[in-house]
Amino acid sequence: MHEEKPREAPGEKPQGSGGESTFTVLVATGANALIAVLKLVAGLLTGSAAMLAEAAHSVADTATELLLLTALRQSARRPDQRHPFGYGKARFFWALIAAVSIFVSGAVFAFIEGIRAMLGSDAEQTLAWVAYAVLGVSFLLEGASWLQAVRQVRNEAAAEDVGFRAWLRNTDDPTVKSVFFEDSAALIGLLLAFGGVGLHQLTGSGFWDGLASVLIGLLLSGVAFILGRTNAGLLIGRQADRRTVYALRDALAARPEVDAVVDLLTMTVGTDQVLLCARLDFADSLDAAALERACVDIDIELHDRFPDLQEVFLEPVPRADPTMRQRVLDRYGGAGAQRLREGLDAGA
């Protein structure tokens, strides 16, 4: 979230990178669907467990991209009576389902196929050149999809003035993060499959082919865990990033009508959508009409400076109220409450 952006037209929500996210997912979907077919044919022709595991990997990725497209479509729906805060969290839900699908349809199959090959009798490998050719073509296609994901991550990170890894760690856009991690895992998986096929051909032992399949399963499990944890956190209700929280705190504390910000609550309700609830100690000189006018002015200013704000709720409370102070301490701890007070004193 950034300050000092032009405000959108009344009634409109900023679209952010939704169009580019859709393009990134579409590129990944087309690439994975084609790759899945090629790997399946190669796996059946060569009898390679690693190639069959990679085919399952690409099928899982294709299903994941379709779920992510569903997430993008559902989350774009406008707020209505039943969902007054919008459908932004639909993106988090479908991205979580996509992460589960990676494990169920990809990792589990890779484990089963790999263990079967490692414990079974050695099978003669045929048409190894087909596997190498498919792996090479797949690497090029996956690489193109990966480069598109990397390009978007870099653009998003630069727009928010953060590093590449920091953006991936803190982003509220699970679609791009999912594509990036899936494509990264796919490229590593292709190298593992290449090694498994090559060692099988050199040694005549299918153990290496099976081991490559098991390693692919472990790789997919790791990606599924990372993405699942990210989306679970967003679904539960994660606060906005710290820079945004502190910027909101300072903006509120700088208002002449505000003596102190007693409490500040934010929640990510969708990609580029933040809900704000602030408990403020207003100046005692304000009468009821002036207090109402101040709330309206603050709402307008915050929406102008922070376009990602979806809704703003302001509650007047006395700063010395022990109940409010205890809630802040319970939520943020002593150090967090101190940072809040320091920011308020500096901005007041």
Automatic annotation (TrEMBL):
Location, primary (coarse class): membrane
Domain Cation efflux protein transmembrane: 25-235
InterPro entries to which the protein is assigned, alphabetical: Cation_efflux, Cation_efflux_TM, Cation_efflux_TMD_sf, SLC30A9
Source species, domain of life: Bacteria
Pfam families linked: Cation_efflux (PF01545)
Ranges where the record places region Disordered: 1-20
Signal sequence bounds: none
Regions of compositional bias (Basic and acidic residues) in chain numbering: 1-11
Bilayer-crossing regions: 21-45, 92-112, 127-147, 179-199, 211-228
Assigned keywords, A-Z: Membrane, Transmembrane, Transmembrane helix, Transport
Membrane topology label: Multi-pass membrane protein
Location of this chain's protein in the cell: Membrane
PANTHER family assigned to the protein according to its UniProt record, in alphabetical order: HUEL-CATION TRANSPORTER, PROTON-COUPLED ZINC ANTIPORTER SLC30A9, MITOCHONDRIAL
The protein's name in its UniProt record: Cation diffusion facilitator family transporter
